Every structure is written in structure tokens, then in C-alpha cells.
Amino acid sequence: MTFLTSNSIKLGVTDLSFHHMTAALVTQILQDMGFEVQREYAPHQDNFINLKQGKIDLLSSAWLPSSHGIYKADVEEVISVTELGLHYEPYALWGVSDYVPVSAVNEVSDLLNPEVMARMHKHIQGINSGAGITRFSIQMMQEYGLSDAGYTFSPGTEDACFGAFEQAVSNKQWVVVPLWKPQFLHHKYTIRELVEPKGLLGIVDRAVLLIRDDKKALFSSQQLARLDTLRFSNEIIAQLDYKVSREGAAIDSVANTWLKTNGFLN
């Protein structure tokens, strides 16, 4: 059993690499305030259940209102929460590599054209089932008639999703990747977003730090204000995520260096 001291904080982190990266930035700030931070990693929906049950004090990062709004609403049936900061502005997308001609594949419905179906890999590999992009993609498979046309979609791990895309790129194979920004693949590859006129991929969200209102007393008003000033971007998170996920850099060192370089830490 872990016993927390009065200055200990449990920070819930959605168990995906870019969420790890963002949480590392938040952790460095919390540690600079004098808190001991224990990071708890869990899938999307489990993270919000932990927040609802008080197993964690804060959550990094919630995508609101589109991707994680249903989970936040469930938490607020028990305890009110406050949004802090704007870590980045995420959104879901379906994309293809830039070597797939826009004249052939510009929007999702183009995937049904016979000449495209003759070249496009029919399996679309997603991430875990609780992710917004997974929920959206399952709906798109039905709404656009892709399942009936012979395409398949399956949830899976980050490694399965990203590995499938990178393997396809290495072979110059046409493939659809269900993705989002920020994500480290965008730092290396030019991934062209497909036009999705039905609006099934949600909207541009706000990625924020959530704190249970009954835990706000652990912080001074100045500390809460400092957390609320944290502003990153899709590009920053993707770049830092790439350093960790593909270049092997230590995540807390990457976070600390970036925060010091950009004036968030002395």
C-alpha cells in the first residue's frame, strides 16, 4: 500500500505516449511547486473512473468537449471538476501518407472508388477501444459503407497502429491511419488528412488538466493560477513525444529541458 503525505499528488495519465509526455511537463511543474507526484497510468475511460472514485486527484489530459466529454459528465455525477490550462488543441483524423495522390484520395468516400480499392490496404488498425478516434472510426466504417465494401477496422495497441502505418510507408503501400494531433508520427511523416464532410470525427477539442474540486484545497490560489497558465501546442507535444518514443530520450529530462528553455522553470 502506498501512503501519501500532505504534499503528495496522484496524477492520472491516459496510457498513450503523447499523454505521457504532456503529463511529464505537468509533473515537472508540480514538483517545482514542492509536490511529490505519483503518476497513475490507465486507459481513457478507466482514468476518468479513477478520477470519479477519488483514486487520483488530477487528470492529464482531458479532451473536451468532444472526445472525453462523456467521461467527464460521468465524473460530474459524483464530484465537480475544474479545467486548468490549455495543453494543446487536439482533433481526430483519418490520414494517408503524402505519396497517395490527392487526385485519387481526397475524402473518405473516395476509399470506395474501384481504382482506390484496388490499391488501398483494406485493414484499418486503430488503438484502444475507449479512445475517441476508435469510437469515431467504428461509426465511420458503417456510415460510409466501408465495412460492406470489404474494409475492416480493429482496435489495438499504440504499437500495432503506428507500426502498421510505418510498415506500410516503408513499402510505399496505400493505407489509412486513424490518428489525431498531436502524435509523434506527424513530426517525421507528412500525413494528409482526408476530408470527412459528415463530421463524424468530432471537433477540435481543448486538452486540459482536470482537478477534482475537493482537491483544490491542496493548492494555493497562486499554484492553481500557475497550472492554468500552462500552454503548449500540437506541434510541441508531437516533437517532444518523438524525442522520447523514437529517439529514446528520457521523458522527464525532455520535459525539464523544454520547460527551462521556454521559461516555465528556472
Automatic annotation (TrEMBL):
Its name, as the record gives it, is Glycine/betaine ABC transporter
Q: Which stretches make up the ABC-type glycine betaine transport system substrate-binding domain?
A: 8-260
Molecular function (Gene Ontology), one example: transmembrane transporter activity
Lineage of producing organism: Bacteria, Pseudomonadati, Pseudomonadota, Gammaproteobacteria, Alteromonadales
- Tell me the SUPFAM superfamilies matching this sequence: Periplasmic binding protein-like II (SSF53850)
Superkingdom of origin organism: Bacteria
The cross-references to Pfam families, in alphabetical order and at most eight, read: OpuAC
| GO cellular component terms listed in the entry, alphabetical order | ATP-binding cassette (ABC) transporter complex
